[in-house]
Please model this.
Amino acid sequence: MTAAQAAEEKVSALSKEFAQKATVTGRKLTKEEQKAAKKAAKKQERAKLAEESRRISSTLSAARFAEDGTTPRDHLENFAAFAKFDRNGLQLTLKAFARGAEGGVPPEVLKACFDMTEANMKASYEESGWGWNALKKQRELESEEARLLVAFDTDDVPRAFLHFRFEREEDQLVLYVYEVQVDQATCARKGVGRHIMLLAELIARRAGMDWVCLTVLNCNEAAAKFYERLGYKMDETSPQVSQMEGEEDASYTILSKRCGAKPATASA
Ligand SMILES: CC(C)(COP(=O)(O)OP(=O)(O)OC[C@H]1O[C@@H](n2cnc3c(N)ncnc32)[C@H](O)[C@@H]1OP(=O)(O)O)[C@@H](O)C(=O)NCCC(=O)NCCS
Model:
């Protein structure tokens, strides 16, 4: 029996006992009895919160790490069929990378992902007013939290990638898409972006996440249309929703999509 269940039983037993007393004697509960009932109810609430917090932590840990609790999970192991993209004249193979996983993240893969991001995003960052901070982007990609799905062509050249992380936002579990980048010269508008985002959604759902979230710069209209097409909506944490009157317009929007279902097994 869990702590929350035990507390719940205690509250229920106490209420029954008090109700019985009140019915038999026709009297109201004494102050002490009321105090005891309140105390038990508070204890029950605390135990419930603690149990929920434990559930969230263990789901997050199981999402990030394999059974040993320390090695990053191979997020493609259950999705072999999605690791190939063979459409619209492209033949790509997806591979998963993370620091601490077998093979880590090879420096040439990190460099290719960074270069693709810079080529695609530098102008938008500058236009947005955020400015382009190469070091910050590199650090983001190299973070221990970062999980990468990289699509290689037949010459083993990275042509698209997705950087995501599993995060907790209060009592919600989120797969946060930090980056989705497609090589514009060779692969744009051929379904690769959609494929890799759908894969991320499947991974999120299997891992028991509640949401897939991401941030898009408002000046990046193509990306906004892309996410809209995939069903993403403005999140309630987006500055446009939470903004106080008189504050300046934000240069970005937070989008989200609800994950469909909970994992098939607790360890998934
Ligand atoms: C935005 C991006 C991820 C889209 O990936 P993609 O592989 O080119 O897009 P897809 O072919 O999967 O497009 C799926 C749908 O999204 C929409 N879409 C994609 N690119 C679009 C664009 N440039 N303009 C309008 N709609 C677009 C379309 O509805 C498209 O479906 P359709 O081609 O059947 O009409 C990719 O072009 C990219 O890397 N852009 C530069 C980097 C970037 O902005 N990343 C997002 C940062 S938040």
